[in-house]
Every structure is written in structure tokens, then in C-alpha cells.
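Entry type: protein chain
Record version: 2
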Amino acid sequence: MRFFFSLLLCFSCFAAYAWPTKPVRIVVAYPPGGGIDVLARQLADKLAPAWGQPVVVENKPGANTIVATDAVAKSTPDGHTILMTSDATFSINPHLYAKLPYDAQRDFAPVTMLVLLHQLLVAHPALPANSLSELISLAKAKPGSLNYASYGSGSQPHLAGEMLKNKAGIDLVHVPYKGISLAVPAVIAGEVQLTFAGIATSMGPLKSGRLKAIAIGGAKRSALLPQVPTFAELGLPEVETHAWFGLFVPAASPKEAVARIHQDTRKILDESDFRQKQLVDKGYEVVGSPPEDFVIYLKKDSENRARAVRISGAKAE
């Protein structure tokens, strides 16, 4: 009876907790216009009426997400400043940079992973290889003759490309471009033969025949591209090509605020129309994980990416 009373008291405290009490900022670690920015603005439009406060999206791109992450780490930990970023921030950067202006584990409280994206290995249509086995055979027959584009040292395509080289025992030449928007056009133009890219970015060129798909990351095939096999089923599960978008707040933020942000965001992700049209149809795998599950996932993801960074030899100053 005493436990039941304490539980009721806890629920009453949660219900009485006043949050938010002022406008909420969602700080996006990327420029306007990209997939993560679009999703942030869609969420903000739906969260504002639910919270009874303005929800403002603020883009702070720069230094591979470090600018935005540092700003949020140093913000008031009251739940009113939320970081929306990708796996680069917490799974890759701590292993890529010798020093960061914040501690990725100590200074943040994970709120939820919103979506997971599995990237495709895509090729120029003239490449004389239509499957992963044919690509590997071609690369072995002509070492160093094939190249792949990424959007910088330590980026997801770079790590995936180097892991493919390592596990398949082949030699591919890494060609870094200055942005995510340049890698796929480089393959279409024939400047490079290969790259790793998301479904949303690749779908148009795949349908028009300007690209062809070789394989995709993840444990199962995409419903949007059921004919494309996964690296796992082709015997190379270590070639991990995923990215994710997630929400974080400063570590000392109230637990009640963290719970409310997750709860209300999850409701939006579960809206059938929004889920299908804005996420699933664009190649996103909807997650909406609770904070405790996100913490567990982050640990495993960070360990896997640390291994990939070591294999790639990538470093950032």
C-alpha cells in the first residue's frame, strides 16, 4: 500500500511539473534545407500547439556539428534548448577528434532517436559490375582503378567505404568532396564510380537510370527497394552504412522535461499519415526510442564506429 501511494505521488508530481514555461529552441547542427532540417521544422510545427509555447528551429552548422553541439552543451539545462543532430556528433566525432569542447557522454542527456537511415552503395550505370560480388571481382582484377566519393574524412560514406575495402580485401580510392550534396552528382557525372547515399537522395537517379544500386545497409531490405540486397545477406555485415537523427538536451535538464519531449515527439512519429508520407515514403525507419533505449544503442553504435574510424585511419584536427 505504501509503494502504491508513493507511485501515485510520483505521478502527481510529474503531472504538476510545469514545462515548458517559455519558447523552446531546437538547435539543428546542419544547414537549412536538408532532411534533418525539414524534419525539425515539421516537428516544431506540431509540438508548438501541444506545448503551448513557440518552438523555434535554429540552424547552427559548422565544424562537423561541433558548433551546434557546443552551444547546446553550454546552454541553460532547463529543457528549453534541444539539440537535433545525427550520429556524426555522438558516434563518430569522439573518435575522430583528439579534443572536443564538450564531453559527448557527460554533458548530454539522450532523449530519443527519431529515425534511422540505411544508405545504399550506388554506382555509375557504366560500371561493369551489377552486384557486390561482381564489384569485388572487378576491384581485385584492377586494384586502385575504382574510386568512391564521400563528403569528407570520417563521414559515413568514408567509413563504410573503408570498411568495405577492409572486409572484402579490395583497393578503392577515396575521393572526398566538400559536402553531401556533391557526392551523388559526382557519380552521376562519371567523375567517380561509387558512393554511399540515402534512399531519398538516390531514388530519383535510380528510377531514371542515372545510378544503379549495388547493396544497402541494415538487417533487412528496404520496402522501397526490395530488389536491393543488404550487405549482411551478402556476407559483409560489418559494412555498416547507417545514419540516424536524434534529440538531446544538456545533461542536467529535468527528467520530467526529457520525458515530455520524448512522449510528445513519439506521438507525432506515430501519427499514421505523418509517419507514412514524411518518413517511411522517404526511406526513413521510424524509431522514437525512449531515453534509456537510446543510451544503450549509443554505446554500441559508438563502439562500432570507433572500430570503423580505426580501420579508415581518419583523423580530424
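Comment: Confidence is low (pLDDT under 50) at residues 1-14.
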